[in-house]
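Students often ask why we bother encoding 3D structure as a string. The short answer is that it lets us treat folding as translation between two languages. Here is a chain of 156 residues written in the first language.
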Amino acid sequence: HNDGSNQKEGYSAFSGAVLALGAAAALMASSTVNCEENSHSIPLLSKYIPDIQKDNKKPLSEMSLFTGNANRPLSEEIAEVLGIKVGDMTVGRYADGEVNVRIHENIRGKDAYIIQPTSPPTNENLVELLLMISTFRRSSARKITVVMPYYGYARQ
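And here it is in the second language, the structure alphabet:
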């Protein structure tokens, strides 16, 4: 259980904003997200979060938000609402289909937020997520937070 006492000031507002946006996306997913076409329609995401700029001691530009291939447009919209850019990362495939994750920026000591639903193809998106987490750990991220607007194995 993390009561927030070990978080640096300023990051808790960002965490709350990212998690609130992910939760808003998840709540609206049943009626607005078409997983087969990998599209979304979530109007006015900013109404789901408080005014984070006034409570934030550090600029949001110092925080890292990343995404896999499951729903990049959703992550870009969340980043736009927060006023930041999606982190520079490539999630690709080798010729044999194996997933390859490369981070093209320094995240050592930073808090990394990954937005990756497990919409169809569920197993491929889940493996992407696990490999992204592994890559961030090996890159010495201070903290890794996954926002999963849709969890494909929730019924199990």
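Translate back mentally: The two ends are 24 Å apart (CA to CA). Keep this in mind for the problem set.
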